Amino acid sequence: MRHTPKGGAGDSGTASSAGKPVSIGTVLNQLREEFPEVTISKIRFLEAEGLVEPKRTPSGYRKFTPADVERLASVLRMQRDHYLPLKVIREHLDAIERGEQVTLPAPAAPARDLIEGVPEAGEEVPTAARIGRAELLAAAEVDEAALADWESYGLIVPHADGGYDIEAVTVAKLVADLGRFGLEPRHLRVVKAAAEREAGLVEQVVAPLRRHRNPQTRAHAEATARELATLSVRLHAALVQSALRGRP
Asked: Keyword Cytoplasm on this protein (predicted)?
């Protein structure tokens, strides 16, 4: 079992004063005092990623020690305040446990510029992540007819101003690559529909965070959405591979 040293990155006072192992529900209540957006699924995910290792009762129930709760608080704090990926957080916590000094990046500013898509009145929305149609055609190395065909099936969708998100380049290249195997845009509508359903699931999770009054919590929603999207893509790939292996 790994423990965060007292006074280190995990010293937050969220653990039980009694010092006894507690259930995951109790852990959730303790953490929500500082992290109102945390869920049992999030705690289980952090366990699956090796960030915390609670003991198990003979019947399989998780039991978290005060050190486990402090470690979870440290992880959530580093995500919220410093936007660190889990791999880096794990390295930091392990280094602390080895007695090493760890320097964290400066806390993320709570300013509204961390919240995308909420411009002040009269302020221009940043378009650095947008490209024009000619740029998309050049980057994806496709012609106008192909792009128009993909748009007609909703695989690539321009914004009202005619620009495209930068991800459109990746989508265009992948659609072109699949086309070389004989997969036409009409075949890929099922992939598009699955992606939209997965995006809907992610939105269900992060929507309460985006409505939160705390600017940092709202900004954290974007990091959570990216993390969930990555996991969703990994799950989708694993399921496809599993389904293919099950075919004769």
From this structure: no
Can you name the residues that pair with 164 across neighbouring β-strands?
A: 131
- Pairwise CA distance, residues 84 & 223, whole Å: 9
Q: Contact at 8 Å (CB) between 175 and 185?
A: yes
Cβ(51)–Cβ(86) under 8 Å?
yes
Residue 131 tokens read as 């490209």
What is the structure's pLDDT at 121? Answer: 34
Q: What is the pLDDT of residues 51-65, one digit of tens each?
A: 999 999 988 899 999
* C-alpha to C-alpha distance for 64 and 27, rounded to whole angstroms: 7
Inter-CA distances, 183 with 126, 157, 179, 196, Å:
36, 19, 5, 20
